[in-house]
Records
---
Amino acid sequence: MPKTAAAAALLATLTAPAIQADAARAEEQRHGGALPNAYFSRDPANPKHLTPTEPALALDAGYAQIMAHPRIPRAVHEELRTRFDDVSVTLRASDAVPNPALAVLQSGNVLVVEGTSSLVTDTQAGVGFNHNNGLFSVAEIALSRLGDNYDFITIFTTFSDQNVAAYYMPLRQDVEGLGPCDGMGDIGCVFDSTDGMRLQGVVFMNSADYWRYWDRNYDGVTHELESFDSSMYSTLGQEVAHRWGSSLRFVDPRTGNVSNKLIGRDGSHWAAWVDTDASVMDGWDWSQDGGEFKLVNDMDRYSTLDLYTMGALPVASAQPFFFIDGARFTERDEGAYSMGLDGDAVPADAVLQLPGVAFMEESGIYLGATGERVDLTIQDVVNAEGNRCPDADHTQKAWRQAVVLVTNIGQTAAEAAGDVADLETVIATWEAWWSDRTARALTLCAGLDEECVQPEAELSGGDVRAEAGDVIEAGTTMRLRIASIARVAPVTNARLLLTVKGSGADYVSIESGEVAVGDIDVDATVDTELPIELSDEYPCGTSFTVEAILRSDNAADVRERYKVFPGTREVFAATFKDGDDGFEVDAQGEDDAGAGAFERVDVGLSCAMSKRTPERDLSPTDKGAFVTGAGDELDGSTSLTSPEIDLAGTVDPEIKYGFWLDADGEGAGRLLVHVSNDGGKTFTRTTEEAVPAHDWGIGSVNVKEALKGIPPNVVVRFTFEGDGRVEGAIDDVVVTDRAGRCRAAVCGCSADGGAAPQAAVAALIALLGLARLARRPGRRRA
């Protein structure tokens, strides 16, 4: 059929193709007509934890109907119950034995199971898979043949099942912070129905031809299986991601109340009015244009919400997003067809009710929406759901997936050779799709005998030195060392992408574009020394930042920034890497913190941290910092006081420090900075930080300005105040002074600024202000 004719037939109604509409209507019934969940009971100690009602849980049709995402329609089970005995199947890796009635053959990366009447049905709706017990029978076959060596078992068929498109059957869920739990198999429930097996879930994916047909109706074209555009991969991506989502709530910044407005179809997909950058979890991509939002893409990738739930992103690395409250369609028709949606409310499940965005636009239909834009961050989600636990640093990063092909009744494995060849293509493309859509942060291996690890890259270093002489200053060349490291597995084709920013950036010349690093062996470090030229006009008192991205073919991007202060020397440095560096908590005995007093900790992700605690240290070379109670938010005041810092010989000393202030809105907490010129007997207030952000900031105090002169020594005190809704931290306290020509310009004296800093000290100058670049716009400090 010509494309225009297909469009006419398709766009005549609001609904998408029948297979989509049927699935959407069945799946949007969250628990309608479902059986009560008799398979689990709530743990009295934690209502989000479910306990099997029997030690050896038998998985049957009722379990499938309740627990599957999306829900399997009850009508499917009722049809099958009239034809088959509803016999429970208990999954056990230890006692799984081959069923002699089923012919099984491993062909390459595919386990082929020849269909029988126990696996394949022939009803009034046509040939289909037995979703009552066939799912578990196939899982049992895979366990007996392959062992409990896989996280997911994915079932394909040689025939198209028109009753059910695709779904994910969870067998265990061990991640907290993913959403609500009402005891009915919700994503937010923690449970294990396998008695400790590795297997986490089973995916039903229908036939390859089914997704070709879906493409024709949804996109107007049939995509090749080698193409990421095939709906095969967005659908498989959705079903596997149901392991973690999508049912996150958030605290509405407008009201302070917990809201479920992100949640759409079946309680396990995103609502259509959420800007998910075209998430495969029923997501659309919205772009604001004045007072209207334009619909630009659909179901193509994993969003920041998805990657957070999957453990690919910590809170600080996730991107902001928004939803359209009170969304109503706008429609512009430039062709012969109209959807008739202008002014209608946007349904939560609209993504599957409508054709693909590109298909509609090719037919002259352009959809948008009006409504109130509500900006959110993952922190708003954490405020409602708590921390994701395990956190992104300690969660599983690599998964193995076994692919099983079930043939039609009477069809032999040899006769299914073409389907096997298709699935080999699917496996290779699927692995590449997954790596691309997770930005190489997660690995999924679908080969039956494939080793599966997720390489991790790190950036460190930051040492700076003058190429000639003792001082980095105008008209000279400096060297910046960046260390690239591989963890877990080798990193391939690594390269550095560099940019320079800051007030001194216009006076700096550095190699731009990509700098090759090459392959990095596991636990090896590759040092890259970058020459940086400073022009003769480089102004004193300015700094610049080298922003580096370590990119590779098989690991997630790593971002760091290295801040350099030319024309300075270091007088004092405290990184808290190995201890308190002479700093004292409550040195004056005036603190009144009821909870959250300062403590020196190794900063990193953990389940025990509060939702406002920093996830990362300020610098990449150490983890130590003073934090206002890693697990308790500050209620009261807590102070941190430095030792006496010798300022002898300085001409323009400046105290620089990293600080963290994350509070529940302005007014919940603040940081006060005081300095003393009499050994800490009396203090002068210098600065106040009161704008909250889930991020490291950089502060500074000019001693000469604050104390009206340069004393022999100085003491600095940092005081956080909070009302129980704030976390603060202090890291990398450094005192610098002018050096070289910049020193002479201040004091009119010799340019001799003293001895050059040693390597470890020089590193601190560069690292001061170094922070993770993965920040959340909208909450940055000016």
---
Amino acid sequence: MEGEMRQKVSELPDTAGVIPRAVRHIFDILEARKADYSMKVTFLELYNEDITDLLALEDQSRFPEDRQKRHITLMEDGKGGAVIRGLEEIVVYTPRDIYSLLERGSARRRTADTALNKQSSRSHAVFSINIHVKETTVGNEELMKCGRMNLVDLAGSENIARSGVREGRAREAGEMNKSLLTLGRVITALVEHSVHVPYRDSKLTRLLRESLGGKAKTCIIATVSPSVHSLEETLVTLDYASRAKSIRNKPEPNQKTCKSVMLKDIYQEMERMKQDVKAAREKNGIYIPHERFVLDEAEKKSMREKMEHLELSLEKQNKEVEKFQGLYLAEQERRLDFENQNKDLKVNLESWKGKFLDFQEAHCRTNMLLREKDFIISNLLCSENSILERAKDMRNNLENASGDITVLLNKLERQAKTEAANEGLLSSFRDELDHSLRILHDRVVGSVCEHLKLLESTNEQTKSYFLAKTESANQLERRIEKAKNMYVSGVQCMKELADTLRQQSIIDAEQMRLSISTHATTVDNFLATMISEAEQILDDVLKSTSELKELLAFSAELQQTGLKRSLTSAQAMSKTSIDFFKNIRIHVARLIKLMEQNQIERSSKLLEFENEFKEICVKDEQAAMNKIAAILSGLTAKKTTMVSAYVEQLNERYSEEQKHLNLELCNLQQSSDNGKDELVAYVGVVESQFQEDMSSHAKLNDQMEGILHQCLKKGGHSASYWSHTQSSLHDLCKRSIMEADDFIEERRNKNENIFQEKLMSSARNDAEFNAITSDVLTSSKNSLLLDHEIRKMIESVSTTSSDHLELLNEKHSEGTESIRNISSNCLEKDYMANSPIRHRPRELLTNANSLEAIEDLRTSVPDLVAKFRSENKLDEIDKGKQFSDQRTRTSRSPLMPVNQYVE
């Protein structure tokens, strides 16, 4: 059962037994679930029907022959199970702890050497593992789940004759065979479902009662030998296993216990154990070894700590229980409220069901009445169609008769009244015609006068508009002239500044050249005096060198000051030019804004003039009479078209002038921007040249200082080098003078070229600016000339319109006079009276219907209802029965009218 359990690595060896493998499997499952658990183990031995605890420590108070084993009592628990009193439970945490306990207990088992087995087990062993797993519910309530696993190692049945045992060993074999025989009887009774199962005949069957016929899962591993000599034992073992395989248990999981209940059981068990210990001490006393005492004290301390922890947990759990009880009561109250609401809803549902049934009955009755009404209406429609046919015939006859009567009456009335009414009508017509002609003539004359006044006001507005435009054009010319003067003065200032800068650079170059020549002459004189005075060479060289350094520093400072002045003047000139160009741009923007405002004002005035002219024409057209409406509308349309075309032409010319002027102003802005960019570039070039000059002078000074330092260094070695030094310094001075002259000449040429390019650019800018200003002035003058031409055209149009109006007035006077003459000639002629016409109306048709025939056309509604009910086999409608309509109903809405006339 145990096999080999020790190995260096954590894995089990291949020869490990069932118990180590089961233990490893249990720990793997618990660790995989990450469960909070505790595990305890017990290990007992059943030898000669005596139970011995294999894990208990030896009692040192007894003699060696008496303290080998500790016997334990087997008792009933009152529930059909067995309880072992005094069995020691050891808490384990790892598989290694269990392996150690197995080794310790297995070493204490009773074994003996027989003829069949060198190490034969003389007892049965039961290794039990008790596991407690803590689980947490949804309400944070802790539950304890308990489980037990019994691993039983049964001793084999033994033939005393073959094993060769004697005396005490024979008794051991007899007890083993007796317990195994009892186990076989129990298995047979369970297989045959006997009423009595002999569990109590052996302690082994009492221990295994729950595993054999209880609610646990049981597995039997039969260990047999392939040897022929063990055939009898093999057959007996297989018979046990075969019969045990037929047992059918009903395994059930253990009930989950609350933590508080479990603690209560633990307290009770502790109290019982305390009482047992106290009774044992009072009876016999007890001797505890020091090691055992230390272990007991440690266990007591750990137990106290656990008890305190459990008490705290219990208190916490009690609080949570109270909390959940409150929540439960609240939920109960809510559930009661919901039940009451549910009852009310059910009552309402029953009432609504009754109402729904009533509505169904009413709906059936209503459907029946509707079908009855449809039947009546269809029959009434048939009757109505026949009545309509008869009515049409009668209507035709009546129309013919009424037509004849009407013609006859009209003839008679005209014949009677014509003669009496003609004279009055003629006189009133003559008076009305004269009055209408006078009114028409007065209105035409008034309209012509209003049109003439409107033309005069239009001419005055046009004159004021042209005067305002002339004034704005003159103001524009003055502003352009002012901008031109500012530009010329700015360019002149720039030229003067450039001349000053060039003269200053020439003066600075000459000063630098003279300074370099002076330096060279001083060096030559210095060398000559040094040759003549060889004794004081070192002191004089030092003094001359210091003086030369000061002169070079002074020269460099002068040159830097001159270049800085040049740069400052160039920057001032560029700033002045930039400000000038900014002023030009500001004035140009103001000019553009002013022109846009003038354009908007002109457009608004023209639109106002056009709208006023159209409104006046419409009013005059509406005021005219119907006879001359065509003439006035044509004249008004012609005048409106002429004015609209002229206004559109003016707008187009103004827009073209505006575009041309905007283009010229954009060119002016572009030219100013180009000049500004060129000036900025020139300033950048001057600054770069200034930096180059400064760097070249710094390099030259550094070279001179290096050469003087080398001269001083060489002068200290020997006086023989003075001649060579003199020639070298003389050549160096000449070369320096030549380089300085070349550098100054080159810079002067570059400055001259830049100055000439700037002059040429300034000349080009002057030419472009003059051209732009001349173009702007020319455009302004052309615009004024065009305005004068437009003014002349407007005056000619107004003159033509006034002539047309006068001609229209004359023609209208002639037309009204001709109308008077024609009407008087027409009314003075004789007229013929209508002669009476003899007309006899036709005879009316005599096929009118009689009263009996008309009564026959009437449809009786009660008869139709009775017919409908007899056809549908219905005697009563109000019985409330559901009516299943088997026919196809008329496809219409319930309130749709059916009795529509069909023509």
---
Amino acid sequence: MELPEPPECPVCLNLYDAVSIIPRVLSCGHSTCEVCIPQLTNPFPNTIRCPSCTQLVKLPDSISFLPKNIDLLRLSSSLQNVPDGPTKVNSQKSPSVSSQIDQSDNLFIRNLWSPEFYLHWKNWVLPSESILLEKHLEIENVLFSLCCGKIVKSVNGSSSLYDRRVLKENWDVGLVKVGVFRDDQCQKEKEKDGSRCNNSCKFVYSYEAKIMKFLFSTSENERDQLNLILNASFKVSKMGRIFGFWCSEEDDSVYIVCERFNRGLEKSMGALENGLLGKVEEQTERKLCAFGMIGMEICEVVMDLHVEGLTVGCLAASCFALDGLSHVLVDFGQIFVMGRRVCRMVAGHNDHEEKPFQKYVFVCPEMLIELLRKEGIKVVDETFKYEVGKGSDVWSLACVLIWLLAGEQFAEDIQGYYDCLFSSVIGQEGCNFVNLYSGCKEKFIASLQMNLASGLVSLRDVLSKCLDIDPGRRPAVHEVWKSIRSLIITPLFDAFPYSQAETVRRNPIYCICLSSLCHSVGNNLKGRHKLVHGISKEDENCDHDAHQDEELSIHGDVVDGVSIGNVKCIDLKAHRDCITGLAVGGGFLFSSSHDKILNVWSLQDFSLVHSFRRHEHRITAVVYVDEGEPLCITADNGGVICIWGARFPFDTTPSHIIVEQKDWRYSGIHTLATSGHGCLYTGSGDKLIKAWSLQADYSLMCTMAGHKSVVSSLAVCSSILYSGSWDGTVRLWSINDHSPLAVLGEDKLGNLGSVLSLAADTNLLLVAHESGNVTIWYDDVLLKSSKVHDGAIFSISKKGKWLFTGGWDKTISMQELSGDGSLVQAIPMGSVSCGSVVTALLYWQGKLFVGQADKIIKIFKIG
């Protein structure tokens, strides 16, 4: 027989003994060694939190006043004298929010994303009120243009959603549309069954949930690539910053927000008809130095991209911007837009343009062939197997540099190359692309020779090699950089800021222009057809409606069925006044109302089973108790408590009536709670909490005083009674002796108004306020206070990781509690409009019961 383990202190894990590790018994019944007790968390004077049950217990002035656990010492001594045997260590962790989920909860709401996913991406969500979209474009243009915006509210590290970057008010930003959040499933259900969908269509996704769901809907590979770009934009100083994601409240469009520059390389240099150097006879040392500085910085920017594992695939003059000191930066917003335009052209959407590509856009041969292949257009034979990579950027980089040198003439030559290519492909399938390109390349080199003086042979040769059709034979970017540097200075030491090992440190794993951010837009436009006629025509049988929308869209399902019609809403009508309370037990739903009636509903078919009538005043609270004999207890604002038998068939009269002593100056009972140990608690308008025995005599056990106004809410959890009051505080009381333990919110919450409702679960306390705020406490420490409703919150309900609140603004807010311990966060998922003030909430076995001020009880359940 295996012997039990010797008892040990739950804090220091040392075995108990009678000399140094003496076990002392706390008032909750658990033992801890006297050495560790003074070191335990002491959130309030003369109280500690038991390390075993986390209950708040009173601490005497001296540790010696706590009794020794003699039985534990005897057991420890006897076991430690036994020869050693196998020892097991049983480590228990406090349950996390996510682990406390009943399987039935998933009938109503299902997981959208993992906690790890939320923690990783939440800092990239910009607050909705932080950005003003200044320029609204047509649908066709908004996908292929950089929208203009402005920061209207500063964002700094104090923001809980955005603590990594800082945005200052009045900053100019660029916005690239990446999608639109649309619930197409709801529309389908509405067409099938309008009445059923009307209930579900009331669900409104929260701002943050729209963006998080959009990110979660992308593939893991796409998120990895996107994460690489986001981090690189802040890691490297020569890259324009990407601030995060923003969603327009007008049309639910999701945007990437980028830094916007007023000075671009294309606009700054576009007026130079003969290039930066001018004619050969005008190429002075000053002009060479100017070109050298700009050219070196362009090379350095491209090398920075490669070091971070990124390639662009094709470059344009618009991809580079100039900061306030005229240093070159890469503009990610323009890169996204340029990539989309290139993909749109190849996909056959250039009917309104005279040229295949816009000016100053340089697409390398292998990139062009790859895009044509993706469209099903065969241009070359199978021997052309060059892949898009770092060498592709070298070709485009060389074109940008040659454009700076040669000016408009080179831009015209490039356009002629594109025209020649596409005109050749239109007439025949599988044209000799290599020969075609070789002829164009000779023209490029001739233009370069004509625009460079004889003393620049080295630069001319390097740029000529960059135009080779084989990416493997093109020089590396740092070789181009060295060649340009020689125009300015001949270094004594050949120092190079990027070692060869550094430039190949990370193989390019992401080509921006081939990503879904750029390539998928061209494939999802209305009426898509190929550029090359006779090769791949538009599908004549394609359903026109399938292409009606030209925007990227995603499909969300924050609440399981609420947004897609799988959850139906049942209305229970029998009361004649405002609903004040809901309780479930014994297979029945109990509802109280200001009409002085307690109604009983069947949970099978939701029919009205019985009505209790005895109260002469408005019923304000109801609770269900199942301690031997099932009971339903109601209280009214006249101070009368009625105890009803809750077993079918129901009696018409209460089994017992308690009349609370009531001062005429105060209202009656506002709230009820039970301890589960034969005790009923009432919170009243006289600022007192009273404990009543549920035994035979139903006598008053004690009165707890401390609040300065009406006691509006009570909750019992982990042997602690929580009481909320109109004075804005929450007080904690011991269930064992009803002594006060702590006061929360007395000096930390500011002007949040009265406490109207409470929800407690193990160490977590959620408090609803008159101001519309919900405060989250963990181990009596305030974690967060957030505005959830536009008006008072009358009811709050927690089940597992889901939190529901309802109140004056006639909506139910749904939040997901994510994280463990002090890292718990409430993620807003969305809201449901109810059409009336929400006065009571109850979540039970996948069903949400809602009591309203318009006398109706709504039940949301799986349809």
